[in-house]
């Protein structure tokens, strides 16, 4: 596998071409942003944690029937993945009220929800990833009805599996964000990452934050928290 030119640089990752047109290399950075890049910083070691953790979780999900972009971990920060066209939706599943849900709806953070919820945001930095419903997604041509049905089913399935895996590690899965991609044959696969950047993880005993909220909210201790999540899940 030969690493070729950089195709893209995002806020937390870079993507490189390879000698295989259907595969790309994702390289995880330690850079952290919050509030659409209003706050910028570094979480030392984050790239390694997110790479290794996301790969381990995606392998577990794939084994349970959720197709993913994951192909092979190359090193601590780099992974070979299938090249996809990202569906421009942030798919957010919640088990417990927190973050924007709590703010928008006036439900105290930490309130358990009666059933898991799912929401879509339009992935567009200039518009600050606005909340939309599935009719908006259809009307704008962001995804087809069939794709939305597939994405919804996968997202709830990921929730069930991920909750269980995290709880075994003494971690409550409060909420998380997924992104999906289209393969050349039109198939939908889970893409992007599953990490403390994209999930709210609370310690099952103390409810301490073990995720990027420590950085977003200037609480501190994010480097230790990321390491702790990796230690609990990967040993
Ligand atoms: P929210 O409560 O701020 O809407 O966040 C919901 C979940 O989505 C939370 O687990 C953090 C994750 N998230 C991202 O992965 N990227 C983002 O840009 C935002 C705003 C949230
Ligand atoms: N999406 C946010 C940003 O771009 C980061 C976050 O809150 O996770 O700054």
Structure report:
This protein is an alpha+beta fold and 235 residues long. It has 6 helices and 14 strands. It has helices at 46-63, 99-105, 134-139, 145-168, 213-216, 222-234; strands at 3-9, 13-18, 23-28, 31-34, 39-42, 70-73, 78-82, 85-86, 89-96, 112-122, 131-132, 171-182, 188-191, 199-203. Strands 8, 9, 10, 11, 12, 13 and 14 form a 7-stranded antiparallel sheet that branches. Strands 1-2-3-7-6 form a 5-stranded antiparallel sheet. A hairpin with an 8-residue loop joins strand 10 (112-122) and strand 11 (131-132). The longest helix has 24 residues, at 145-168. The chain is globular and about 50 Å long. The two termini are 29 Å apart. The mean pLDDT is 98.
> Which molecules are bound besides the chains?
thymidine-5'-phosphate, aspartic acid
Average pLDDT level: 98
Secondary-structure content class: alpha+beta
Query: Helix count?
Result: 6
Radius of gyration: 17 Å
Order of SSEs, N→C? EEEEEHEEEEHEEHHEEEHH
Q: What share of residues is helical?
A: 25-40%
- Mass-distribution shape: globular
Structure summary, number of beta strands: 14
| Distance between the first and last residues' Cα | 29 Å
Largest beta-sheet characterization: 7 strands, antiparallel
Strand content: 25-35%
Spans where pLDDT lies below 50 across 5 or more residues:
none
């Amino acid at each position: 596998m030969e690493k070729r030119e950089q195709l893209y640089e995002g806020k937390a990752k870079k993507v490189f071409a390879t000698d295989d047109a259907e595969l790309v290399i994702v390289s995880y950075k330690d850079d952290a942003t919050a509030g659409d890049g209003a706050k910028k910083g570094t979480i030392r070691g984050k790239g390694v944690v997110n790479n290794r953790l996301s790969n381990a979780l995606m392998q577990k999900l794939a084994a349970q029937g959720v197709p993913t972009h994951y192909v092979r971990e190359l090193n601590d920060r780099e992974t070979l993945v299938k090249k996809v066209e990202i569906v421009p939706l942030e798919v957010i599943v919640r088990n417990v009220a927190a973050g924007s849900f709590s703010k928008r709806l006036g439900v105290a953070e930490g309130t358990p929800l009666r059933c898991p919820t799912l929401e879509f945001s339009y992935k567009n930095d200039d518009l600050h990833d606005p909340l939309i419903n599935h009719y908006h997604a259809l009307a704008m041509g962001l995804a087809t009805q069939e794709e939305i049905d597939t994405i919804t089913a996968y997202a709830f399935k990921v929730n069930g599996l991920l909750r269980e895996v995290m709880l075994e590690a003494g971690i409550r899965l409060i909420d998380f964000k997924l992104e999906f991609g289209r393969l050349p044959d039109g198939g939908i696969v889970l893409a992007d990452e599953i990490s403390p950047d994209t999930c709210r993880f609370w310690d099952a005993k103390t409810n301490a934050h073990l995720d990027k909220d420590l950085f977003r909210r200037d609480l501190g201790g994010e480097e230790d928290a990321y390491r702790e999540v990796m230690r609990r899940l990967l040993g």
